[in-house]
From TrEMBL:
<feature type="binding site">
    <location>
        <position position="303"/>
    </location>
    <ligand>
        <name>[4Fe-4S] cluster</name>
    </ligand>
</feature>
<dbReference type="InterPro" id="IPR058578">
    <property type="entry name" value="IspG_TIM"/>
</dbReference>
<keyword id="KW-0408">Iron</keyword>
<feature type="binding site">
    <location>
        <position position="306"/>
    </location>
    <ligand>
        <name>[4Fe-4S] cluster</name>
    </ligand>
</feature>
<keyword id="KW-0411">Iron-sulfur</keyword>
<feature type="domain" description="IspG C-terminal">
    <location>
        <begin position="300"/>
        <end position="400"/>
    </location>
</feature>
<dbReference type="Pfam" id="PF04551">
    <property type="entry name" value="GcpE"/>
</dbReference>
<feature type="binding site">
    <location>
        <position position="356"/>
    </location>
    <ligand>
        <name>[4Fe-4S] cluster</name>
    </ligand>
</feature>
<dbReference type="GO" id="GO:0005506">
    <property type="term" value="F:iron ion binding"/>
</dbReference>
<dbReference type="GO" id="GO:0046429">
    <property type="term" value="F:4-hydroxy-3-methylbut-2-en-1-yl diphosphate synthase activity (ferredoxin)"/>
</dbReference>
<keyword id="KW-0414">Isoprene biosynthesis</keyword>
<dbReference type="InterPro" id="IPR011005">
    <property type="entry name" value="Dihydropteroate_synth-like_sf"/>
</dbReference>
<feature type="binding site">
    <location>
        <position position="349"/>
    </location>
    <ligand>
        <name>[4Fe-4S] cluster</name>
    </ligand>
</feature>
<comment type="function">
    <text>Converts 2C-methyl-D-erythritol 2,4-cyclodiphosphate (ME-2,4cPP) into 1-hydroxy-2-methyl-2-(E)-butenyl 4-diphosphate.</text>
</comment>
<dbReference type="GO" id="GO:0019288">
    <property type="term" value="P:isopentenyl diphosphate biosynthetic process, methylerythritol 4-phosphate pathway"/>
</dbReference>
<protein>
    <recommendedName>
        <fullName>4-hydroxy-3-methylbut-2-en-1-yl diphosphate synthase (flavodoxin)</fullName>
        <ecNumber>1.17.7.3</ecNumber>
    </recommendedName>
</protein>
<comment type="pathway">
    <text>Isoprenoid biosynthesis; isopentenyl diphosphate biosynthesis via DXP pathway; isopentenyl diphosphate from 1-deoxy-D-xylulose 5-phosphate: step 5/6.</text>
</comment>
Amino acid sequence: MSGYFSSPFPRRDAVGVAVANVIVGGDAPVVVQSMTNTDTADVDRTVAQVAALHRAGSELVRITVDRDEAAAAVPKIRERLERVGIFVPLIGDFHYIGHKLLADHPACAEALAKYRINPGNVGFKDKKDKQFAAIIETAIKYDKPVRIGVNWGSLDQELLTHLMDDNQANGSPMTAQEVTREAIVQSALLSAELAEEIGLGRDRIILSAKVSQVQDLIAVYTELARRSNHALHLGLTEAGMGTKGIVASSAAMGILLQQGIGDTIRISLTPEPGGDRSREVQVAQELLQTMGFRQFVPVVAACPGCGRTTSTVFQELAQKIEADLRKNMPVWRKKYPGVEALKVAVMGCIVNGPGESKHADIGISLPGTGETPAAPVFIDGKKAATLRGADIAEDFEKMVGEYIEKRFAR
Ligand code: SF4
């Protein structure tokens, strides 16, 4: 039986990094983050999207800072959010001219809680170290952490060419894919080494190395985790649209998280045009919650349905209860401490309904086709009531509300 009942691997020992009041790494739980897709210079739209991501549960939010207008908007965005009581740390995403934007916009440098820089495009050749150093020095001056975020699509070509040449000179023991993976890992580690030489503490550095293929991501992060104790941000870049992006991200990050690798995650989903950006936060939370690492919202267990129930009442009820619980969580977290641990079951017939409902804190077994039109409700494993008539769904929702009030109210 050895190993059968064992818990997941222990978390990798990573140096904790404070991003304003959110700790990434150390003993802190894995942090959920997201990124806006608005033009940061558009203060109204960016404030609205940051607020929506925060309300959905994003603990850090990254915004693009790509030009003067965007940098000038950052302190306004910060101020507007704080005016409505939103203090979620903002991360500035810099490419190419980050050193210049940070130098020219001190209020932006101050308002951001962290800078994300890409060592692949921070500058070119001899300018590179100077521009990289300028960003690191700004981070030291304003006491901000930095994420050194390597990305497969903008990998340092000089480093890659150098490793390819070396590999060839040694008789090509590594495949081109392996050399590329090594270049990604080295780009992150060498940049971190340089930042530390300049004077940025290890407790101010987070590393990431994003690629778009699941096996590459697992290989690269496994190696990064083995060769450093920096806090790690996990993310599969260009994960894809819809279910493909969700499955690919969950597969790759689930395997790494199970091995204790990863201190903060972002699920990068390509939204449908006009689609809800908050979905990436929900998927990240669900990944962490289903793996048992964190609890964000109560779980609603529902059976998949089958030929034993042709009614859609149980699916509609499960969806409604889940949506209500998620919507109420920002308020309920304060009003009902521990409510995240609640388990609700909504089942479609007598076969698994009573059993599953008994395992939940509160559960209902709706009548399947041909069954007596009665729905037993179980609370804390015991039958508490039998609902009948046209208002079963409303009556059960009311019972869930009463249960929460009774069990979790301060
Ligand atoms: Fe089908 Fe009943 Fe099982 Fe739901 S509980 S999947 S309706 S057998």
